[in-house]
Amino acid sequence: MKALRARCSSAAHPLPMPDPNSPEQTRRREGMAFLRGRSEEGGVETAPQTSEPITSHTSSPSPPSHTRPATSGPAVSLSAFIDQGSEFEGKLTFKDTVRIDGTFRGEITSQNTLIVGETGEIMATVRSRQVIVSGTVTGNVFASDRLVLHKTARVDGDVEAASLAIEEGAVMNGKVTMGGAGQSRSFQALSGGRTEE
How many CA atoms lie within 13 A of 36 on its CB side? Predict the structure, then answer.
């Protein structure tokens, strides 16, 4: 497709309309139908069938993509994200997965997963089903299911979790309580990580 150029027009010299049956206009329609997820006839289509790639030229640059580093395990769908350089203070309550790469102060309560990225800095009491830490958490952490500390993680506070995984290099200062009711065990140091007293 040719780059679009701005043209001045007047009532005396209207711009010519493109031929709707031209190959370029057909590719444009097929491309738009593909983006909507259906063919022009209304059926679902996997990709437009053209011999040339569909390209688009715009006058303004696209916004940057917000691709985040993956955590261990399957891909995670985020419902909220606090980016690096952002600061938030208060009470955060959510039902789905949230990732924090910025700074948060206050209290966090979740029914699902909290991910603290490498640049994330949390100063809060955290209550969540699962907590995955690659950054810094200052405060007590209560994970009803699982707490994961990656090698870049630092946790300063008491931890209570049903399951705990610590990569070598992670730093943890505080008391650790694991297991369900009547089965809790306390640990000061765990294999693979180090504690500072």
Answer: 12
* Residue 52 to residue 168: CA distance in whole angstroms: 51
Tokens of 23: 């190959």
Domain ranges across the chain? 20-53, 80-180
Nearest to 125 by CA among 149, 96, 91, 148: 91
The per-residue pLDDT for range 134-187, each reduced to its tens digit, is: 999 999 999 999 999 999 999 999 999 999 999 999 999 999 999 754 454 544
List the one residue out of 68, 58, 54, 119 whose CA is nearest residue 97: 68
Single-letter code of the amino acid located at 69: P
The tens digit of pLDDT for each residue in 34-91 reads 444 444 444 444 444 444 444 444 444 433 334 444 444 455 677 788 899 999 999 9
In angstroms, the CA 119 to CA 130 distance is 19
Q: What torsion do the CA atoms of 179, 73, 151, 118 make, to the nearest 10 degrees?
A: -110
CA–CA dist 174, 176 (Å, integer): 7
- Write down the pTM of the prediction: 0.57
